[in-house]
Amino acid sequence: MALIGGALLRWTAVRAYPQGLWFTGDSYFYMGYALRPSPSRSKTLGYSFMLNLMEPLHSLKAVVVVQHLMGLAVAVMIYVLLVRARLPAWAAAIVALPVLYDAYQIELEHLLMSEALFTFLIMAGLTLLLWRRPVWWTALPAGVLLGGAVLVRSAGAPLIPVILLVLLLRGRPARLLPRLLPRARPDLPPVLAFGAAAAVPLVAYAMWFHSERGEYGLTTADGLYLWGRTANFADCAKMDPPPEERGLCLDAATKAQQDPPGHLIWRNDIPPRERFHSVTSSEANKTLRDFAVRAILAQPGDYLHAIGRGVQMAFSQHRAPHPTAGTERLYHFPDRPQLFPAGRSIGGGGTVLTDAMRYGGTDTPSRVVQPQADRMIGYQEKIFLPGPALGAVFAAGAVGLAAARWRRREVLLAWGTAATLLLFPIASADFDYRYVVPPMPFACLAVGLALSALRARRPEPVPAGAEPVESGPGPGDDEPSDPEGTGPGDAEPERGVSRWWENRGSRHRDSGRASAP
């Protein structure tokens, strides 16, 4: 029933805004590069690839329907994972409710933006890794999905090392001298498979980038974003930068304005735009990145304070007009059709309006249909996950990480993903409300996994002569994982050992299948 309700809400949004919603700047960018594919210096184009694949349909409605189906699929994956972890079905449904009913989640799915695809790919990859103890043939497609997510949004890049680290922690017990070496050793095949598979789409994209731009990379704009993150606190007197970078510090009047980085970097009067012909050129990118790193190393307290302000806004009760009031309004369902700028489209070849008309096969690429639009506007005013509640979900996941003794690595995988998705954009660019929505499903999943672990009890020692009775399940293969590194699926089927093998006080059985319940 919860899934049906979420689907009906999304269908109402489709009826209210049949051509989708446009995010000023980014939607035009993705559409322009979908119609004229070529590597961009400022963003990766995974979302444009999806738009390009759907172009023959000439239907903007089809795009938003697919994105809403992705949102529903994310909720279904959370539910299925938690039920498989033996959380009661009603509890699993409650955990998935924010994904199904949060109005800002639904609105973000309706925007012609990359977040729906980005979240779906990551959740699909994590589902493969959490379904059972990772083996190479599940880690392989999971790596491809996570690598593809990085191409959709480069903010997903730190997830690759984070997941690799968690996989390294999910080891098999040492086969030699298990008493002397009780700690787990890394189970390398799934680690190597995941890393190699994640690298495939990234290397392919970098080679395409090189063929067009003459250098290997995904983008050359990270320096500009990081400069914007540090510009408001960077003090050349404290940094002592080289002469060629000294002019990149803001003057006192501009710094006093404390313009948010997400708006500051687009101003024409900032030092990078006055100095460089293109702020995304290789030279500019290297110089701006070097300046920002110097600022962070010289003023780490100021940098952490800037990140803290972003996290505070994410968990605040009230939504701030950040980075601008106009940007924040784009995350609300509108009551009138959107207007398109008259300038040339991003990527060249026409105007923003002609691109939208050409792709959608329509003369009206933005429509508002009543009374459905008013219903969605009214719904969004009342039904959403407020900032303090999101903070509580993150806090509950952190507590669960400490308390979920038998499923700690699985909780860490979900909670670490959520924390990375929340913190990295703030640390590398700026806080934006659309960066808050993708981490939410993974934070909810972490809470659900922690709850399922708390329900699972470690089996008591089995008295001699008694048959063991199954206890609460653990992750993956539905058995409790061992805090010292053993985990589900570690029992060797060819030996047929008891599931209580190596539990203190249990009988050691060298042969015979594990006892049935």
Automatic annotation (TrEMBL):
GO CC annotations on file: plasma membrane
Record's keyword annotation contains DNA repair: no
GO biological process, one term: lipopolysaccharide biosynthetic process
Major site of localization recorded for this protein: membrane
Residues spanning the membrane: 60-81, 111-131, 143-169, 190-208, 383-404, 411-429, 435-454
Identification of the protein by name: Phospholipid carrier-dependent glycosyltransferase
Gene Ontology molecular functions: pentosyltransferase activity
Biased composition, class Basic and acidic residues, residue ranges: 492-517
Disordered, as annotated region: 461-517
Species classification: Bacteria, Bacillati, Actinomycetota, Actinomycetes, Streptosporangiales
Residue stretches of biased makeup (Low complexity): 463-472
Compartments (UniProt record): Cell membrane
Annotated keywords: Cell membrane, Glycosyltransferase, Membrane, Transferase, Transmembrane, Transmembrane helix
PANTHER family the UniProt entry points to: MANNOSYLTRANSFERASE YKCB-RELATED, MEMBRANE PROTEIN
